[in-house]
Write a structure and sequence with these properties.
Chain lengths: ~290, ~475
């Protein structure tokens, strides 16, 4: 009745071999081929006709009619008692590279409120342009993104895909610009002190669905936001919360209203706005204090 | 007596359990879905009714470990002879032979059993069952392939075919399963059975990011880079050298299968990413708190899965294909504009000054004496993507591991110890980590000074000493 341990081991090994063969190739019709080649233009349903549709948000105007455009303007206004954010650090604070980084008080730009509770740095844009929107011409003049006293200037930027972004620094210390796009490719590169020529230049290759964060790895509080777009229907509110988007095709549009301090970062996911040809639709956007996630 | 039986039965029993856990019920293994997919709401993962979700779209294009699917939009040398049907066969009788034309015609063969797959056309009846026939013989002069059995659904002229399709991936898969899987996992997720015992962790390929490259800062890893890693291993880690165990062809095959797994993972991340901002579980929770209902959100998702998903797949596929293609193009390589500056006391001194300078700031992470203990390593960082504080202090990479900046006093360089390897690390940074690129084209001379200094650090009697003496 005594079992030989060696037999037990053999039994186990047999289990292994039959249980999962070395390549894991089981039965089934493709035991022999086991690599299937698919055509490049594989469509959505998996058919090989490659009808990959034209896409576009169904709820937006279905055809870009630029012959009779309209405009969309308004303000983003905080409703309720606006909180005051403490600065990230005060003037002369004992922080890294204090000579530059605390040369001035460094404000917390997560929520910037102007006159009459207008909110700055709110992105208002179409995630997808209406069908038939031509790709905009991209200027060959670079957009500047500067660094002064360990703070990105401007804090927020709407930038067309393909347009060069020039990274500058006014500080006498090294910075390191690190972008975190979801659809595009990260940039992570050192910036030399007082670089006014902008050695670091790059262009976004893909439009993003939401603004992407830009950080400096050497000064971790530094935060900026870029929104690369492949159409002209995007705006950023000014210091008093004003915005204007011009040349919109008439019809219904679904705007994304994005702010870094909002819950889920979106004040509105789908703000429906009707554009009438030759007119400006003016609509203020309420931003209740209860929607803040500070 | 009882004791001795127990001693045997317990290990036998537990070993059997291990074996069954190791294989799924059918005896087949499967690719896992990544965190980007699993963070989506269930309907986005699994689809709604007839409309497929992310999982189905992924499986359609990449298959499973048993039946790998090679989506030929992707730049993989999957192996096989590609061609097309040269003449629509006469279907009045059974079709037992086919006239084919190949891009590069294979040599003649007889008495074989090679597999011919129809890639397009009515013979590739549906994506679920592409038709495969066995070719017995082939004559490159008459271009006639003799089939083992008559075929039921004859192809038409111009239908794409492949002979021995995917032979490279097949071989690569076998080798990967034998040598790589136990650390890097079946799916290339860096979570094989051995992985949890290792530090540093094995690479999770699914970001499509590899650290040690000779390509530009924003470019992907090249085939040559992956092969170099297989050849040399990664010193200071568990990654060994696979030469001479693998021959030259086998190295190529493993590289191709790793690229397949990386592209699968990256396609998945990108496709799921297209839905994440509106249809993740987090977004769902926030939207329901607002003025939307789950039903209304599912309706919108239905629209997305019906129409917009085409754009999303096109974007995900094209961006993966384009970036991996570019990685192997010549102008993607980082080539120093001047050959290495001769190592000298003066060069090391300049290099050390640069290392300590505020201009470049190497010491911020690597420390003033190069021990990898600079001030940045003690900070609690926020995850830049989620804005949440990490649990541990230190520099985090895209895989959420804490990276110790290299301790340069050891003289162990993970990406290789040739001077040009260090040049590449400085010029293009270390991808996926906080090590940035310093690629000012005017600064190649300075990069060489830095390299000369870094290579001298292990031999300093105290920081900066060797560089100043003599």
């Amino acid at each position: 009745m005594k079992l030989n341990p060696a037999i037990a081991v053999i039994v186990i090994e047999l289990f292994c071999v039959t249980g999962c063969s070395d390549t894991g190739l089981g039965g089934g019709a493709y035991q022999a081929t086991s690599v299937v080649v698919l055509p490049p233009d594989l469509g959505v349903s998996g058919d090989s006709n490659g009808d990959t549709g034209s896409g576009g948000d169904i709820d937006t105007a279905t055809l870009a009619d630029s012959s009779s455009p309209g405009n969309f303007s308004g303000r983003v206004v905080l409703t309720g008692t606006a909180p005051t954010l403490a600065p990230i650090h005060g003037k002369g604070a004992d922080v890294k590279d204090a000579e530059y980084c605390s040369a001035e008080t460094l404000p917390n730009e997560k929520l910037v409120i102007g006159t009459d509770n207008g909110v700055a740095n709110v992105f208002i844009y179409l995630q997808r342009p209406p069908r038939g929107t031509p790709k905009p011409e991209v200027s060959d003049v670079p957009v500047d993104f500067d660094q002064k006293n360990c703070r990105f200037v401007p804090h927020c930027l709407v930038v067309p895909v393909g347009q060069t972004v020039r990274i500058l620094s006014d500080d006498g210390i090294a910075h390191n610009t690190h972008t975190y796009p979801k659809r595009g490719v990260q940039t992570n590169q050192g910036v030399a002190p007082k670089d006014r020529d902008g050695v670091l230049r790059f262009a976004y290759r893909a439009a993003e669905n939401e603004p992407l964060v830009v950080k400096c790895d050497l000064h971790t509080w530094m935060t900026g936001w870029h929104l690369p777009v492949d159409h002209p229907y995007a705006a950023l509110t000014d210091l008093d919360g004003n915005f204007k988007i011009e040349g919109l095709p008439s019809g219904d549009h679904m705007f994304t209203v994005w702010h870094e301090a909002a819950k889920g970062k979106k004040i509105h996911r789908r703000l429906k706005v009707t554009i009438t040809s030759g007119e400006t639709t003016t609509q203020d956007i309420e931003y209740p204090v209860s929607e803040l996630a500070l | 007596m009882l004791m001795s039986i127990n001693k045997i039965f317990i290990p036998l029993f537990s070993a059997t359990v291990v074996v069954f856990v190791g294989c799924s019920d059918s005896g087949n293994s499967s690719f896992v879905y990544g965190p980007a997919t699993l963070a989506l709401m269930a309907e986005a993962q699994n689809g709604i009714g007839e409309l497929p979700g992310v999982k189905k779209h992924l499986d359609t294009r990449f298959g499973n470990p048993q039946v790998v699917r090679f989506w030929s939009k992707l730049p993989l040398n999957a192996g096989g002879e590609f061609g097309s049907v040269a003449e629509t066969p006469d279907t009045s009788e059974g079709v037992g032979k086919l006239k084919l034309s190949f891009d590069e015609p294979p040599d003649a063969f007889t008495d074989s059993a090679r597999l011919l797959q129809f890639v397009t056309g009515s013979s590739a009846t549906s994506e679920d069952t592409p038709q495969v026939v066995t070719v017995v013989s082939w004559n490159p002069e008459t271009r006639i392939a003799q089939l083992q059995h008559e075929i039921k659904t004859p192809p038409a002229e111009g239908d794409q075919v492949v002979l021995d399709g995917g032979s490279v991936l097949k071989s690569g898969r076998t080798l990967y399963h034998r040598h790589c899987l136990h650390c890097h996992g079946t799916s290339g997720d860096g979570a094989g059975p051995t992985a949890k015992y290792l530090n540093p962790r094995p690479r999770d390929y699914r970001h499509g990011i590899f650290k040690f490259t000779s390509t530009q800062a924003t470019a992907k890893v090249s085939r040559d880079d992956l092969e170099r890693t297989l050849r040399n291993g990664i010193p200071g880690t568990y990654m060994p050298s696979f030469v001479p165990m693998l021959d030259e062809d086998e190295l190529d095959h493993v590289v191709e299968y790793i690229r397949f797994l990386a592209m699968r993972g990256e396609f998945e991340r990108r496709l799921a990413g297209e839905l994440a901002s509106d249809y993740s579980q987090d977004a769902l929770a926030i939207r329901i708190q607002g003025d939307e209902t789950r039903d209304s959100i599912v309706e919108l998702l239905k629209e997305f899965l019906g129409v917009d998903v085409n754009d999303a797949i096109d974007f995900a596929g094209s961006s993966v294909a384009d970036s991996w293609t570019a990685a192997d193009e010549e102008d993607t390589l980082v080539i120093p504009s001047l050959s290495r500056i001769t190592d000298s006391v003066e060069s090391r001194r300049i290099g050390r000054e640069l290392f300590l300078s505020k201009e470049i700031g190497c010491a911020d992470c690597h420390g003033i004496d190069g021990r990898g203990n600079g001030p940045q390593t003690t900070i609690f960082e926020k995850n830049p993507m989620t804005d949440e504080l990490y649990n541990e202090p230190g520099l985090h990479d895209v895989w959420d591991n804490v990276n110790q900046p290299r301790n340069l006093t050891y003289g162990i360089y993970r990406g290789g110890r040739r001077p040009v390897d260090l040049f590449h690390r400085v010029h293009a940074g270390i991808k996926g980590t906080r090590m940035p690129a310093f690629k000012n084209p005017k600064e190649h001379e300075n990069i060489w000074h830095l390299v000369n200094y870094v290579l001298s650090v292990p031999f300093e009697s105290e920081p900066g000493r060797a560089a100043q003496s003599e």
